[in-house]
Amino acid sequence: xxxxxxxxxxxxxxxxxxxxxxxxxxxxxxxxxxxxxxxxxxxxxxxxxxxxxxxxxxxxxxxxxxxxxxxxxxxxxxxxxxxxxxxxxxxxxxxxxxxxx
Length: 101
Hints:
By secondary structure, the chain is mainly α.
C-alpha cells in the first residue's frame, strides 16, 4: 500500500476509441431518424397563413430557441409571443396530418 489512489481499472486508448465510435454511431442513427420528423414539422409550418406564428414555431421547434429569447429577438413581449405560439400550434393541427406539434 502506497497511500496513492488506485484508480480502479486501467483505461486503454483502444477502449476509448471504440466507445467514441459507438457514440458517433448512435448519434448518426438519431440524426437519420429525426430528419423525417423535422420535414413533417416544417411542412406543417409552411402551411400556416400567419407568418409570425410560423416564425415563432420554427424558432422554437426547429432552432430550439426558448420563447423568452424569441420575444427579445423579435422585440415583442413574452406574453405576445406566448399567445402567437399557442395560436400557431392550434392552427398547425388543422391542415393534413400535422398533429406533430
